[in-house]
Structure of Di-glucose binding within endoplasmic reticulum:
Amino acid sequence: MKENTGRIDALLNGVESLKMSNSVGSLDGEFGVDGSRAGGGGNSKSVVAAVGFAMMFGAAGLGAMVMKWHMRPKDWEAK
């Protein structure tokens, strides 16, 4: 029965190292030795920034249209 303890220990060590790994599957942390970030992730940040700027400019344009609508003359009629 002592023959299988090595196999069980090996399985448990594998499970422990899986539990220790981070979200990008690395055991050395978020940053590597050379200072680069593991997994990149820069592309998704630029997409979020671009969408944010587009929403900001869209809201500014919509606000300008509402201001122009409220500042129209009282005798103005839609044709």
